[in-house]
Structures are given as structure tokens and as C-alpha cells.
Amino acid sequence: MQPDYRSKYNTHLIRIIVTLVVLAAVGIVVRAMVLPESFGRYGHYRADAIQDEINRPIRNGTNASCLVCHPYIRKMHLEGVHRTVSCEFCHGPVADHVQDGRVIALLPKKQGAQIRTLCLRCHNRIIRARPRESIKMISMPQHLEEKHVRTDHVCNQCHNVHAPLMWVRQAREIVGVGEDKS
Amino acid sequence: MMDMDAVQEEINRDRRAFISKVFQGTIAGSLLLVIPAGAMDLAGIPEQIPGMRAETGPFITRRKFAFVVDITRCIGCGSCCVADRNEYQVPEGNYRTWVERYIIDDHDNVYVDSPDGGLDGYQEPRTDIPYPVRDTFFVPKLCNMCEKPSCVQVCPVGATFQTEDGFVLIDQKRCVACGYCVQACPYSVRFINPVTRTADKCTWCYHRVRKGLLPACVNVCPVQARKFGDLNDRESEVYKILHLPHVVSVLKPGMGNKPSLHYVGLRREVV
Amino acid sequence: MSPEHGATVAEALTRYIFPNDLHVHWSLMIVLYPYITGIVAGAFIVSSLYHVFHIRALKPISRYSLIFALAFLACATLPLLNHLGHPERALNMMLTPSPTSAMAGFGYIYSAYGIVLSLEILFIYRPTLVALKKEATDVMSAVYTVLTIGSDNLSPRALALDRKVIAFLAGIGIPMACTLHGYVGFIFGGVKANPLWATPLMPVIFLLSACVSGIAGIILSYVLIKKFAGESVDMECIRTCIKFLWGFFILDFVFEMLELFSHAYMATHHWHTLRELLWGPLFGSYWIAQVGIFSVIPFFMLGWLSLFRLSDATVRIWGAVASFMILVQVLLMRWNVVIGGQLMSKSERGVTYYHPGWFEKEGILPSIIIMLLPLVILYVLSRIFPLWQTEDTAAGEESAG
Fold first, then answer.
1. What is the pTM of this model?
2. Which spans in chain B are helix H?
3. Is A96 in the same domain as A137?
4. Could B4 and A75 be called an inter-chain contact, meaning their C-beta atoms sit closer than 8 Å?
5. Residue C383, domain extent
6. Taking CB atoms and an 8 Å cutoff, what residues of chain C touch A12?
7. What pLDDT digit, counting tens, does each position of C70-121 carry?
8. Model ipTM?
9. How many domains, chain B?
């Protein structure tokens, strides 16, 4: 004799199926609510992310932007052989110096041995691999010995860092020797 | 080119007046500024790529940018690495771009190094090379901006993507930092930024390019080893390099990613 | 151009890794995830061998293996959530799964498989749970009400319906279990940039080692649980499991070795990098540990246990030992693949190192905790779902599946 059951034979299966369908529906609704509006506009990504990237703050300027407030040095720099060297390479990014048109901090100026290290980053002949056509190279302390200069001198005692040959050329004019071809 | 007399005249005046006039736009016709006064968000930086600031659509349409690296010119100064780190405040130990030094001895052994990615330049020569050196060169590395990027293919949430103008970018708000893109990149240009806890990589300074500025590394390179330009401009250096008989190559062509970054003077020892 | 192993000073000098390759991004957590899902898939296969393929000898553990699988499945997301830089965004994988990314499959595959496994357990256990509900106290009564979906109907019609559903679930459960672990294999196999991972065999190897780890986990835990409970094990069941374990392990080991042998034989462009890895930092964990100790020895032990007529005690004890060794082998295999693959720099010129700390966020201690948690959950589940069948329940399930 079959005992009486409170549920039908398929109650549990129906409840499971209904639960799964409801879960799926809830999932679809939640997804529609939570999904960023611009997602999928141009592809499988959030289109507004492009504008987010464009809005990233710019930290480095260009040498021309330094001109706005530093025309004297810039003129020297532009006429010298260092015209392709970035101001911000030695001094740091303009965003650390100027914000919203106002100076917020002063940028560091290299001193003493820091200058020698910085110059040798480009001009050291001992580091092989530098194409001779790209850049003039010297090795230390031979360079100082050749020029009959005390070997504890740093580079900017003879070379203006913004226009490295400016004083050298002026000195040659004064003394009356010709251009150094080496 | 700048008119030096005009500049000299300006400089001879009172400096404060000069600056205030500049910012008020009364020297509007001057070559000093190309943007109208008041657009202080760019802090007085003139456009290096004309017309970019006029583009208001989501993608760059008028230009087709190309990035070329010239190995024959790179001196390993690391200015590019410094500029890049300053631009993006990249945490230590992670590199959006770096410069490698290759040294080849006369037994054809290849020695490669990149101390801190070349951030401090190359201060010391290598002293651990037993045979005479026959050749050396520097190789800058950055995102190859592949036409078929494997990083985009594997990103599970659509956080890294390729725009219609060919730039591969990262959505910093959707990335979960699963690290799959880092594994998939054949060139190891991607990393997980420990500060933002998302994936990160070189973007060819998309945010600068859209504002008409050159990428930071291109801007600072003192020897024009990094070149960035518009292929729609037939007079541009990148056009000439990519269309005239220069020897141009890409890294790991066998991967099938079709990198957009081209090298001039790439050597067979470079991977 | 590549230096020979153990050669001169020149080898040390040519080592170069890309600056971004120094850091290993996929840590112990990513070693554990395939290990856990592998055990889940393998345990499910054991259960399906009974429910779908009617291998009668496996009946004693047919229910246990499902509960075992569920206990491990419940913990499978933990290592991943611990690893993500933004775990709060983890649901992005279900909101916007990329159609080209194998990893994007995780959310839906895991959820779907979790549903199938849970439902199969509920349907198989329903008669038992209905009976247990009658004798239960308030809290447990409520629990059993939910688990029986509020139904107390055990009529022949209901049971026949249940059998159909179980057959269906067990049937689709097999390909789903294979997908659950196969897609993980493809996550690695699809990375062309990594010479250790990029092979079409990767999903196959992962799946076979999953089956192996699941069967071994069942054997070992079955023996240990029964020992601690002071009950006897079904030796026919154990012997059958051992034979299946041996069979799957033969396939697994053959594929693993075939993969490596093909690479070595063809010696294409990336072979020198792989060789530098396998004979360098991975020599100990791969050749000595994974292959030498934990593959070769269990291989012969399982063969001996399967082919020879041995006493029950011998089979039980050495079967458990072999199973433990297999579990270690599979963990080592996951380590060697996941970590080993990342040790090679994409510069093709050097290898980096990975030494996880004990107390790092993704270090050794969290790994131990994550591996112990399924056992705790198994214990909790065993209080709700009786792991072993009695005579009554056995009768009700006679021709199930």
C-alpha cells in the first residue's frame, strides 16, 4: 500500500528548474544594471576607457614649453650642440614644477659629481656600443689629461651644460686658436 | 623654425609683463604659443603633431601613426627610460620601456644586459667578457603595438583592447590583474603595476599623442633613435623609412602578432 | 649560439632576462587552482565510472566521491581570488567574458559544473535525506527540508524520475568535468609565447593528470577515513580503483614524456631555452622529484598491486602509499608547468627564480590553509550527507544511473 506523500512525484524537480530559471533571469537583469553603459560600443571593451586614457595627466612637457618662462637659457640651449637634449632629462618633468600656470616647486639642478655622472651617461667612450656618428665621446680621466686640466675638475667647469661648446669656443677666440677637429 | 630676433625682443622686456601677456594671449600671433590662452591643462605646451587637438572623435582618424626605432643611432643614455618613468611614475622593478646592451665577442658569444632597464644609463663597462669584443650596440624596447595582439586575445574581461586606430590600451577600471596578458605577451612589455594593482604597459603615450605631443621617449631622445610620425605624410621620416629601401625588421616575427614597432638596423642577435 | 650546460664561464655571462621577466606573476595560488579542479574532475570521473559505466565494484565510493568532489570544488575559487589584484572585480569575468579568452570560461564553467554536481548529489541522496529528515532536530530538519527541496515523495514514480535525472546529470557531468579541467589546460596550451606551455597536448595532459589525482585522492582518503572510523574498506573497490589509477597514470605519464621527447627530438627554435630550464632550476623538482621518485616508483608499485595476487592488507597499505605519491606527483607537475614555464625569460637567454615565502599573501602558509580547507568542508558535509551507504539506501539505488 502506497503511503500518502505531501508532495507530488515531481515537485522537487519542478522547484529546482524554477529556481534555476529565476537565477538565470536575475543574473541577466543584474548584468544589465551593472554593466558599464559604454561597454561593447566599439568592441569587447568599455569605450569610455579610451577617454580615461586620454585624460591621463601629462607630466613631461617639451623643450618649447620650458621656453615660456626660461627664454634666456633656452636661447643658449637652442643655439648649442645640446639642442636635442631634453631639459626635463636633467631637471625633471615640468609637472613637478608648474601646475595650473603656477610654480609649485623648483626643479633640482645637478651639482658637482652628479654633473659628471650625467654627462658620462652619453659621452663615455669606455662604454662601447655608441655609434661614433651619433655623438662625441671621451673617456675620463684621459680627456682632462689631454686638455691639461686638473683631474678633479667636473665637466661644467669648462663646458656650459646648456651649450657645452659656448665657453670653449669663446676661449678659443680669445686665445686665438682654431677649431678642435678631434 | 623660431625667429630668434622676435624672441630676443621679447626677452629684452620685463619678464613679468612678458609672461602675463603670453598668458593673456596678446602675443597671439607669436610663434611661442599655438594654443589659446586659458587652455592651462596643457600648461602652455605647443602642439608637436599639428591638428591633433582638433580631433574630437573617439579615434584618431586623420593620421596613421608609426613608431620606428633606429638601432644604429641609440647611445644607451637612458633618457627615454627616465622620461617614461617620470611620465607614468612607474614603480621600481617594472618597466614600460627599457634599453638593452648587446656585446658580441669574437667567438660569437652574445652578452646582453639591461641594468635597471637602462634607467641610469650605462655607467660601467662589462668587465666579465673573456674574449675580445668585436661588436656592440644598444636596443631600446617598448610595446610592439601588435596588429594581432595576443594580450587582447587572452584578456578574460575585456580590460585590454585594441582601438580602431591601432593602439592597444588598458582599462584601468576593469582589469582584475589576473596576469594572463603578462604571460601571453611574447615581448615581456606588460607587467602588473603594484600600485594600481592592474596590468600596465607602454601605450606609445596615447594620452600625449591625442593632445598633439610626441611620446615622451621620442621627445627626449637626443639622437633621434626613436621616431614617431604619420604614415599619411609622405615627407615624414617614418614614411620614408618604411617605404623606401631601408632594412626594416620586427621582433619575433614568427609569433604571428604582426608588431607595428619597426626597427632599423636590427641585428640577428636581438630577440 | 647557445652555450652547453655545464660549460665554461661563457654560459654564466650570456644569461639575460627581460627586466619585466624577473618577477613571477603566477604564484603558488595558480599552482593550486588546477590541482584542486583536477581532483574535482578526477573524483567525479570515479563516481561516473559507477553511475554511467556501471562498474559495480566502485559502488561503495560512488557517493563518497561526489561529496569529496564537492568539498574541493567549494574551495576552487579561493586561490584565484587571493591572487587577483582586484578580487572585488572578479565578477567581471561573468559580466563581460571575452569570447577569445580561455580564462573567461571560468565563471560559467565553474558555476554550471557546481550546479550539476550539487544537483546530482541531491538527487542521489534524496531517499537518504528524506529518511534522515524524519529523525532530525530543528536545525538539521530545516537543513534537510531545503536539501530535499521540500519534497517527501519517494513513490516508485518519483524514484524512476530521479533515476532519469541522475543518469542525465551523470552523463553530462563527464564532459563538463572534462571541460572544467580541460579549459585550464588550454589556458596554458594557448600561450604561444611560452615554449613550455604552448602545445596542443596541454589540455590532454592536464585532464589525464586530473583523473589521476582524483582517483588517488579518493583511494587515499577512503583508506584513511575508514581507518580513523575503525571500519573496514571494500577491497574489491580499492583494487578496482588501483587498476583504474594505474591505467590513467600510464596514459598521463606517456603523454607527459611524449611531449618532452618530441621537443627534444625535434629541437626546434625554443628547445635550448627549455633545456636550460629543465636541466637548470627545474632539474630537482622535475627529473628527480616528479619523474624519478614520484612517477617511476608509483608506476611500478601500481603495476605490482594491479597484476599480482596480494593480500588485502598489502594492497590497502601500499595502495594508499602509491596514491599519496601520485598526489605529490600531480602537485609537482602543476608546479613544474606553472612555475617552470615562467622561470624562462622571453629573452630566450636566461632563467629567473621563484622562492615563495611562508608568510607571503600567495605563499606557503596560505597554500597549506587552502589545501586543508576542503578536508574541513568534507567533514562538515559528512555530517549532513552520510558518506557510506547502508543496506536500505543501497537497495533504493540499485539500478540508479
1. 0.88
2. 4-12, 15-24, 79-88, 150-154, 180-184, 206-209, 216-220, 237-243
3. no
4. yes
5. 14-396
6. 126, 148-151, 153
7. 999 999 999 999 999 999 999 999 999 999 999 999 999 999 999 999 999 9
8. 0.90
9. 2
